Amino acid sequence: MCRWLAYSGSPILLEDIVYKPSHSLIEQSLHARLGVETTNGDGFGIGWYGHRSTPAVFRDVGPAWSNRNLRELTSHIRSRMFFAHIRASTGSATQQTNCHPFRYGRWLWMHNGMIDGFSAIRRELALAVAPALFPSIEGSTDSEVMFFLALGLGLAEDPPGAVARMAGLVEEVGWRHGVEHPVQMTVAVCDGTRMWAFRYSTEHRSRSLFHSTDIEGLKELYPDSPLVRRASEEARLVVSEPLGDVPGAWNEVPESSYAVVEHGRYEIRPFAPARVPAPAVGA
How far is Cα 81 from Cα 237, in angstroms, rounded to an integer? Predict the structure, then answer.
């Protein structure tokens, strides 16, 4: 599986979040505590919003812990909203086009988990992608197919509804092919203004996901922490696993729910797949 983090708040150097915490994403690339694999070395990526409406991305196939370009970029890039992801492949090739986050227009998407039985249902799911979007798929991962399904199912108008319809479609196709638990996902998606993070699996045993505690409470608890002291009131983080062992800093995102972050406001809402007819695919 993978590890990832998503940040929203006042502009901050990426290295302050990606490298500096005691259990940073770079530390997790070698010593993850809550993931299926301890080591996540099958590529990495960052995506960030700057002065344009569309985000920039930097992805590479090597391990994050030894990439000098990543270290250099994160020490100079300051952003108000960014994603970072380290990959442990579930079977698809280790190549740049398979590294997260994925981008389309103003949207960023990253995923930890898998579509079980993907090789058996890949063709049917790919044919369910909107024809106008299909040429933009560059890689071979289940994660990217999930993204483009969600785009075609209304991500721009209703992100939670589109992700629910995507999950429902994957489940319907999977069940038709005898897959007992098709969906395993923690997903982050953003449009540069708002951010959503979903935790769901068909068997209701989802991968770990946490959100940061309100920053004002942390400042009272840890007035001498440089990272906490620099954080703005609207700063919010969603992570696959906590970036340190500071008591009270992290709250688990509940099973079958999603978080929405906008202008520092944070809300947890229930999540369930929406049933949509699975397309009929000929032989």
Answer: 10
